[in-house]
Design brief:
Blueprint lengths: L3 E7 L5 E8 L4 E4 L5 E14 L2 E6 L2 E5 L5 E3 L7 E8 L1 H7 L9 E4 L4 E3 L1 H16 L3 H19 L2 E4 L5 H16 L7 H8 L3 H12 L3 H18 L4 H7 L5 H12 L22
Helix pairs in contact: 2-3, 4-6, 4-7, 7-8, 7-9, 8-9
Length: 283
């Protein structure tokens, strides 16, 4: 019962992050993503909480997470689970949905967290494997957009606003996020955020958690991880990425990276350089 994971990044249609993993004991803490998450369980069962609702995704199920949805992930049974997942950015989804002329801030949303669609699942898995092994960018991008188009057409049933302009509470949370983005490499404190926003620390933390689903320090940690991930994908060493993104050292980054991404920075690879190591097995 060995856990393993591959995490890679392609610029063909995005950029887009890909994950191919097997977990038995690893448990993802409550967290959010800046973009969407679409994944297919290829073996076992994944259990997760999405926005306060519990779900179980069996083999052959498609899992959907909207941007900003608080969620977890764990194996409810000893057999664990394997899955293939993509993490497309929000603007890419708007492009796939052909929403260029829609109102600003509106993106496709998905009410269903788990979908059963055998034909789409098979095409998703084929697309994912091609993006892991093929050196043809045209093939990778064509399959990717076709799967996204069908997924959005069939299952997006609402529109979500990511502009951060929905009332005073959302505006306050957005202001905090803006400040943390600008100072993530430093060590901003709660009193500093309180001074910048002009509200009490207690009110700030309460409002932020109500809006974002996680407290400010957790949001900052995830933002740092995303920036470190992007640096590593660009070829920057994990030690340099750790220092540049506000982590104490490389071990500090590695510990949090594994917890939230399910893989250590050393497991990140470029598919075109690792085709010979691909087994083709969903274990």
């Amino acid at each position: 019962m060995k856990e393993n994971a591959r995490f890679w990044h392609l610029h063909d249609a995005g950029p887009v992050d890909f994950l191919h993993a097997t977990y038995y004991t690893h448990s993802f803490p409550k967290h959010i993503h800046e973009g969407y998450v679409f994944g297919v369980v290829t073996r076992g069962v994944e259990a997760f909480d999405r926005e306060g609702e519990d779900h179980q995704a069996e083999e052959g199920s498609l899992v959907i997470i909207n941007p900003g949805d608080t969620h977890t992930g764990y194996a409810p049974f000893d057999v664990g689970w394997s899955y293939r997942t993509i993490y497309p950015r929000t603007d890419l989804i708007r492009k796939a949905a052909d929403m260029a002329n829609s109102h600003s801030g509106l993106y496709p949303g998905f009410s269903r967290a788990v979908v059963k669609d055998p034909a789409l699942v098979q095409d998703f898995l084929h697309m994912h494997r091609v993006n892991e092994t093929s050196d043809c960018a045209l093939e990778r991008e064509t399959l990717f957009y076709e799967v996204l188009r069908r997924l959005i057409h069939r299952y997006s049933d609402k529109k979500i606003n990511l502009s951060g302009r929905q009332g005073k509470d959302t505006a306050l949370a957005a202001r905090v996020c803006d400040y943390l983005r600008a100072h993530y490499a430093g060590n901003p404190g709660l009193s500093e955020l309180s001074e910048v926003t002009g509200v009490s620390p207690w009110h700030l933390t309460r409002v932020f958690k109500n809006v974002k689903g996680i407290p400010p320090h957790a949001w900052l940690n995830q933002y740092r991880l995303n920036r470190a991930r992007d640096m590593i994908f660009r070829g920057i060493s994990p030690s340099m990425a750790a220092a540049a993104s506000g982590f104490t050292d490389q071990s500090h980054l590695t510990r949090h990276f594994k917890r939230y991404f399910g893989v250590t920075p050393g497991k990140i690879f470029h598919p075109s350089k690792n085709v010979q190591d691909h087994t083709g097995q969903d274990r």
